[in-house]
Amino acid sequence: MAKIVFCEDNLITQKLIRAALETTPHEIQFASNGSEGIKLIEQARPDIIFTDVHMDEMTGLELLSAVKARDELAHIPVVLMTASVQSSYLEEGYSKGAADHIIKPFTVDDLRAKVEKFASLLHQDAP
User: Fold this and answer.
1) Burial class (CB in 10 A: 0-12, 13-18, 19+), 6
2) Has residue 94 been placed in a domain?
3) 0.70 cut: is pTM over it?
């Protein structure tokens, strides 16, 4: 089981993510913007972070930078979620330490596969 924080400002997308992952064993928490997200991440100490790139108050790229700047959080993989076809966002994200990305709109299977990819890495690192 993985503890996952999703930073997503679109309520419909949040509902879709919930529905897609409700039958998985993972603990899912949501933040509605990047500022709320960084507070939740500091408190929850998740295993995986998924963040929308385009959000108010703090973008996903700013959240990524904030996570990677904190020694106690820097090890957490951050997956960028974006509907943008501009590769510059992804290039910037990878240069700041993003572990992966998923293009919106994504399918239930695509999201589950991305979650399981990182959840399985947690089990490999376990003693």
Assistant:
1) buried
2) yes
3) yes
